[in-house]
Amino acid sequence: MHKTLSFNGEKKPWLHLLQGRNKPPFASVTRNILNVPGMPGAHLQSTDTGVLPINQPVGFVVKDDVHALELKDELVEWLITDAPVELQFDDEPGRTYFAVVQNTMDDFDRFVDQRSGTIQFLCLDPYAYGPEITEEFTSDTAIIAKQGSAAAQPVFELEVLAPVTFAMVQNQNEEYMMIGQPTDADTSTVNTKTLMLEERGQTLDTWNDTPTEIDGGTVAGYLGTDNAGITVPSYGSDMPGWHGPALIKEVTPAQDFEVEMMLEGEASGDQTFRIEFYLYDEGMNVIGKMAILDKTLNVNRKVAEGRIGGYVGRQENYLISSQNYSYGWPFYFGMLRMRRVGSIFEFYVTRIANNTKHVYSLKETYVDNNNEYAGKLKYVQIHIGKYADTARAYGPKIHYIKAFELAEATTDQTPYIAYTGDIITFDHVNEEILINGEERKDLKDFGGSFFDLHKGENQLIMHPPTSFLGNVKYRPRYR
């Protein structure tokens, strides 16, 4: 059976490898030296590693001229990419390159029903990679006998078991990555984020349906649960404008707060939906609202909204709207968050990818210089609706809504940066620091670095002790 290759995760069964692959044993290495007058030889300043070219002859058989054109077009569509993608050869099992195609098949040849030529791959990353390896930490430590002939870039994932003021992973060479800060002997830890409300659908009977009010519409129908979130069994009877159920709940009054909603929605054709939360002060004045909606017929258009205060007009007082957050997705899964500390409001929306990483994120701030929206948060309202007699969208759902009271740490206090169940990720491949998928490089310690796994044994330890369930993932690299 002939051997072939996989490019961008796809194989062409009609394509086979021919003899004559031209690939150097390793990428070119350039030594940058410093000559000193009067000194024999030179100093080595740095080393540059070049790209890795791979020229692979290939061939295929055609039935006729029409079939030849079809395969040629398929080949072009497959090979031309905008960025490096995975490249694997059947005769190099367990090795993956990241390559783009350059130039063309200059030696493309036709002979009866056979076609052949050379594909010129260019690996901007000159290393080959093995399959991903995962190692677990045991009692806060891990000993990694790194595989591969080159240094590897790890990804550490720490599940928080108890609130922590810092998180750190260190090796035996005193290289480390750390966020937050350890507690000094003359300071105390402080919880600056107190949970006031968490609803996932199981206790909706503790919410009220009055007094509720929604923008540009009528409260109707009722909310329910599928035991995995808050759903909308009924929008009520069709009527002009937006309509659907809303519920409101009182919380302990809080001056500084954070409200976070995880949600999803899908709409197509003539379907519409919107999912919102409204925040009210002690006098039932609207502090602000956030929403995800799709009201565009026959076109996928997911829009986010973040507004300060009540509705006063189209696009007025909106920090986030269709003007800065509008995407043509059929499906949205993500998070809305509104926070106030002092006079500063922060509105945040993000989509969440399958790997829990925040993508397509937008953060906007508003400074309430005149204290127009300075009342304490006392009521949280949720709403799911659809427009007029448009079709029901597929499964709009609130996975959860949480409300926290915030407090600032004093000079003799060290705040917690992560809580039980949070996931901290130190991604040394992409040089990212994430908490629950959200970028948090602002917490990075100045001396921390995205260190490699080195040749031989790597002794790793997590701090503080007994605070995490940890693992490290890496792909062996080969020169």
From TrEMBL:
UniProt superkingdom: Bacteria
List residues of the Siphovirus-type tail component C-terminal domain: 415-478
Report the Pfam families cross-referenced here. Answer: Sipho_tail, SPP1_Dit
Q: Which InterPro entries match?
A: Dit_BPSPP_N, Siphovirus-type_tail_C, Siphovirus-type_tail_N
Residues annotated as domain Siphovirus-type tail component RIFT-related: 15-123
This chain belongs to the protein called Phage tail protein
**Annotated source species:** Oceanobacillus picturae
